[in-house]
Write a structure and sequence with these properties.
Length: about 625
C-alpha cells in the first residue's frame, strides 16, 4: 500500500481510538492505578510473519542491539519490539522479523521511538533501509521540550516516575538471556507507545513549541546521528609527535623546578612548603581550610608576587592536561575516526552539547586542533562560523540603536567599544590588543554582568587584571554607549516576574518554576539566566536551522558522499567537502541565516579552509 499525505476515514478512526486509549490510560496511572502489561514474546518464524496482520496506524518500536554505537565493529540488531500502547510484541531480529517490521513501518501513519538519533542509525546504517522515508517521532524530545529543567531524560527515569519499575530490568546486556532481553525490549516499546501519544498531545497544545519540534528538533535528530556515524578523521602520527613534544617540555620544567621546591612537582606538600613556608606568601586557603595550590591560587601568586615557579607550574599543568585529556585518550581510540555524539536534550537553552568525546571542548591550542584532518583525498575542511551571533541577536532583542547601526553599516563593534567605552580615542587608533580587550568587555557586559563579577572572570580566563574602579568605569561607559541594554534587562525582569518563563522567536521556552518562592539572590540569578538564555538559544537555532537547510539541499542533490558534516561547536560548523562545492555551500548558509524577518541586523558567516583544523585560513 502506498503511503499518502492524508489518512482515510477507517485509518483515521483507528488513530483517534489509539490516542484516546493512551490518554485514558495516562489518567488512570496518574490516579495511582497499576499498569496492566500485555506482553507477548514471539519466536516462531510463521508467528512473526502473522504480525503483519496488525497493520497498526500508530505504534512504537524499540531495538536491542549488540552495541550502543551503530559504527562499532560487528554492530547488529538483536531484537525488536512493537507496541500500540495496549499490547507489545517482541521478537528476535531474523529475516522474518525484518520483513514483518518493514511492512508495519511502511503501512504506519506515525511511529514512536525513545531517542530517534539512536534508532535512526540502526535502521539507516545497520539494517540498510531508508529511515528518512518513515514518519518517526521522538518521545524523548517531546519530554525535553515540555520540561527543559528535568535534567535526566532516560526512558528508565520517566518510567520510574510514571509507572514504577520494569518487570524485567536488564543491566548486563552481554550476559542476559534471550527470554529476558525480549521481555525487557517489549516493556520499552510499551512504555514508549503510552508516553508517545500522551506527551505528543501535550506538546501540540503549545503551537510554538510544536513548531520547534517539527521544524528543528525532529529533523535535526537524523542529521546529528549521521554526523556522529561519519565521525571526523584524526591523525595519530601527529598525535604521537605532539605527545613526544609535550613530554619533552614537561621534562624540562620538572628538571628546572623540582630542585627549587625540593620535591615532586605533582605533589601538594612540597608546593605548599615552598610557597607558604619558604617564600612566606600570604596563605590562600581552600574551602576546607587547607593551604591551596590550585590553579586559581597559582595564578594569584604568579600575578601578585611575579613568582616564576608559579608561572612554570601553571605551564606544567596545562601541558599535562593536554596529554591526559586529549593526547592519550585520542591515541586509545580503536580507529582513526572519532565519533562524537551530539545531544539536543542536555542544555536548558536548546544549544547542542557533545560527549564521548566532547568535541565542543577542544582547546584553541593549534597542536590539539591539528589532530583533526580531512579524511579523503581531494577533500578540504571548511569551517563556517556565525560571526558575533549573540551580540547581533542581543541588539535585536534590546532594539539597541547604536549596535544596530554598527552592524547594518558592517562596522566593527569591538573597535567601537574600545574607542568610546575604554580608551576615549578615535576608532582608527585602536590597536589589535585594545580591540581584543574590548571583545572581552562586549561579551562580558552584554548580559548585564556586574563589575566585580566581570573583573574576577577576566582575571581567571585571561590573566588580565583591572581594578574594581576601572571595571566600574568601563561598565558605566559601556552602558552609556549602548543605552538600550538596561531597558531590555528591565523588560526581561518584568516578563519573568509576571510569567516565570521567557520564549524565543523560534518558540522555545525557558521556564523558571518556583520563582515566586525564591530568595532575592536566587531571583537575581534567574534574571541573569533569563537575559542569557533566549540569546544563546536563538543564536544556536539560527545556526542549527542553517545546517538543516544545507543538509536538505545535500540530500536533494545527491551530494552525501561529497559534502559531510563533521562537527558543530556552538555557533560554528565544520565540514569536509570537495572544494568545488564551497561556493554552493556558502550561498545556502548565507541565505539561511538571513531569512528571519524579526532580525534587525544582518547575520554573517565567516569561512576558513584548510587540511587541518588548527591551520585553517580565512577566505573572503
Amino acid at each position: 500500500m502506498e503511503r499518502s499525505g492524508g489518512i482515510n476515514t477507517k485509518a483515521g478512526n483507528k488513530v483517534y481510538r489509539t490516542i484516546q486509549s493512551c490518554l485514558a490510560l495516562a489518567k488512570k496511572l496518574a490516579s495511582g492505578q497499576k499498569l496492566k502489561k500485555d506482553i507477548k514474546v514471539v519466536t516462531a518464524a510463521d508467528e512473526i510473519l502473522k504480525l503483519k496482520e496488525l497493520q497498526w496506524p500508530i505504534f512504537a518500536f524499540d531495538f536491542e542491539t549488540t552495541s550502543e554505537c551503530a559504527w562499532a565493529d560487528g554492530a547488529a540488531i538483536r531484537t525488536v519490539a512493537i507496541s500500540n500502547g495496549e499490547v507489545a510484541y517482541a521478537f528476535p531480529w531474523t529475516e522474518e522479523a525484518k520483513e514483518t517490521f518493514e511492512f508495519l513501518l511502511r503501512h504506519s501513519v506515525r511511529t514512536y521511538v525513545y531517542n530517534l538519533q539512536f534508532e535512526f542509525l540502526w535502521i539507516e546504517k545497520v539494517w540498510g533501509i531508508d529511515a528518512y522515508s518513515f514518519n518517526i517521532d521522538d518521545v524523548m524530545l517531546f519530554n525535553y521540550l515540555l520540561d527543559e529543567n528535568r535534567g535526566r531524560y532516560s526512558l528508565k527515569d520517566l518510567v520510574a516516575e510514571h509507572f514504577g519499575n520494569y518487570d524485567v530490568l536488564v543491566e548486563d546486556f552481554k550476559n542476559v538471556s534471550m527470554e529476558d532481553l525480549l521481555y525487557y525490549n517489549a516493556e520499552d516499546a510499551l512504555y514508549t507507545a503510552i508516553l508517545g501519544d500522551t506527551l505528543r498531545e501535550h506538546l501540540r497544545r503549545d503551537h510554538q513549541l510544536w513548531g520547534v519540534y517539527k521544524n528543528i528538533s525532529k529533523p535535526a535528530a537524523p542529521m546529528l546521528a549521521e554526523m556522529s556515524y561519519d565521525g571526523v578523521k584524526i591523525d595519530k602520527d601527529t598525535i604521537r609527535q605532539v605527545q613526544k613534544s609535550l613530554e619533552e617540555e614537561i621534562g624540562k620544567i620538572r628538571a628546572e623546578i623540582e630542585p627549587i621546591i625540593g620535591g615532586d612537582i605533582s605533589a601538594r606538600k612540597p608546593l605548599t612548603r615552598y610557597f607558604y613556608d619558604f617564600k612566606g606568601y600570604e596563605p590562600i586557603m581552600t574551602n576546607k581550610g587547607n593551604l591551596s595550590v590550585s590553579e586559581a591560587a597559582l595564578k594569584q601568586i604568579a600575578r601578585e608576587q611575579k613568582d616564576k615557579v608559579a608561572q612554570k607550574l601553571l605551564e606544567f599543568r596545562k601541558k599535562q592536561t593536554l596529554i591526559d585529556k586529549y593526547v592519550i585518550p585520542y591515541l586509545q581510540f580503536d580507529s582513526d575516526r572519532v565519533h562524537g555524539q551530539f545531544h539536543q536534550h542536555v542544555t536548558r537553552t536548546g544549544r547542542l552539547s557533545s560527549s564521548k568525546p566532547n568535541l565542543q571542548q577542544i582547546p584553541r591550542d593549534k597542536r590539539i586542533k591539528n589532530f583533526f584532518v580531512t579524511g579523503k583525498k581531494a577533500f578540504i575542511l571548511l569551517q563556517a562560523d556565525l560571526s558575533q551571533a549573540e551580540l547581533r541577536v542581543a541588539c535585536t532583542f534590546a532594539n539597541e540603536s547604536t549596535m544596530i547601526k554598527i552592524y547594518r553599516e558592517d562596522g566593527d563593534i569591538h573597535r567601537k567599544t574600545a574607542a568610546e567605552s575604554i580608551y576615549n580615542i578615535p576608532e582608527d587608533q585602536v590597536t589589535k590588543e585594545q580591540r581584543q580587550f574590548a571583545k572581552q568587555i562586549n561579551f562580558g557586559y552584554i548580559y548585564g554582568q556586574e563589575a566585580t563579577g566581570f573583573r574576577l572572570k577576566l582575571a581567571k580566563e585571561t590573566d588580565i587584571i583591572i581594578s574594581q574602579e576601572e571595571a566600574e568605569r568601563i561598565r558605566n561607559n559601556f552602558f552609556a554607549t549602548y543605552s538600550a541594554l538596561p531597558r531590555w534587562y528591565a523588560l526581561i525582569r518584568k516578563v519573568i516576574e509576571d510569567n516565570h518563563q521567557i520564549r524565543t522567536p523560534f518558540g522555545r521556552l525557558r521556564r523558571f518554576p518556583g520563582y515566586a518562592e525564591m530568595s532575592q539572590e536566587e531571583k537575581e540569578e534567574v534574571i541573569r539566566q533569563a537575559i542569557n538564555a533566549p540569546v544563546q538559544s536563538t543564536s544556536s537555532d539560527i545556526n542549527l536551522f542553517a545546517m538543516l537547510e544545507l543538509k536538505s539541499a545535500i540530500r536533494k542533490d545527491g551530494l552525501n558522499d561529497r559534502i559531510r558534516f563533521l562537527l558543530t561547536v556552538h555557533d560554528s560548523l565544520l565540514l569536509e567537502l570537495e572544494d568545488r562545492y564551497i561556493p554552493w555551500v556558502r550561498s545556502i548558509l548565507d541565505a539561511s541565516i538571513n531569512q528571519w524577518k524579526w532580525l534587525k541586523v544582518p547575520m554573517r558567516m565567516d569561512y576558513e579552509i584548510g587540511e587541518r583544523w588548527g591551520e585553517l585560513e580565512e577566505i573572503a
